[in-house]
Specification:
The chain is α/β, with parallel strands linked by helices and about 200 residues long. It contains 5 helices and 12 strands. It folds into 2 domains: about 60 residues, OB fold (Dihydrolipoamide Acetyltransferase, E2P); about 120 residues, Rossmann fold. The strands form 3 sheets. It has a 6-stranded mixed beta sheet with strand order 8-7-9-10-12-11, with helices on both faces. Strands 1-2-3 form a 3-stranded antiparallel beta sheet, with no helix packed on it. A 3-stranded antiparallel beta sheet has the order 4-5-6, covered by helices on one side. It is elongated, with a radius of gyration of 20 Å.
Length: about 200
């Protein structure tokens, strides 16, 4: 680039965003080469040219995250002892990953006392299932709703509203794939224990 800028820099799950005045650069991790972190500077080469960022102590941490990005399963927090269910339209590759990682996996049918339920929602009507799915969760379980990005018929707002209407709270959003995002819902702490009578 040959220029020096004061910039806002943000590290996402698979892309580094650089904003400085008229410079707007989004660099996917996979498009970086020669990545190094020395003396508080992160350096790499990308399609735009050589880039150097003064990040201080964060440089080494960012380099590690770029070179070793978290897997989809680790972003979701999958644990080996999990009982999980997958319903709706979900990426078969993810189902295979989950089958390897979870202790028990049910596809197409929801098991009771699930640690996690993954609902692949492609239409707003798919969200009608949320309240019923909540009933199959363990008190500390999670419902993940996976939706296509950029679809006006199933927006993030619609998904969040469906979770709220079912008495759930949204606690996390992850980039599930280049085309989909996943929203995590849990039962509020106040509703997990029934009062002793």
């Amino acid at each position: 680039m040959g220029r020096t800028h004061r910039a806002k820099v943000r590290l996402e799950s698979n892309v580094l965003q650089i904003r400085a005045g008229d410079v707007k650069l989004d660099v996917p991790f996979k498009d970086m080469s020669g990545l190094t972190a020395r003396n508080g500077r992160l350096r790499f080469t990308c399609q735009a040219g050589a880039v150097g960022l003064s990040l201080g102590a964060a440089a080494a941490k960012w380099a590690d995250k770029i070179l070793n990005p978290p897997s989809r399963l680790s972003k979701i927090g999958v644990k080996p002892g999990w009982r999980a269910s997958v319903v709706g339209t979900v990426d078969p590759e993810f189902v295979g990953e989950l089958k390897e990682a979870a202790e028990t996996l049910s596809t197409g049918r929801v098991m009771k006392e699930a640690d996690a339920i993954f609902l692949g929602a492609t239409r707003a009507t798919d969200l009608d299932r949320v309240a019923a799915l909540k009933q199959s969760l363990k008190p500390d379980g999670a419902l993940w709703i996976i939706r296509p990005k950029g679809h006006t018929d199933i927006t993030e707002r619609l998904v969040m509203d469906a979770g709220k209407a079912a008495g759930l709270v949204d606690v996390k959003v992850v980039r599930f794939s280049p085309t989909h995002s996943a929203l995590k819902f849990v039962i509020p702490l106040k509703d997990r224990k029934k009062p002793k009578g």
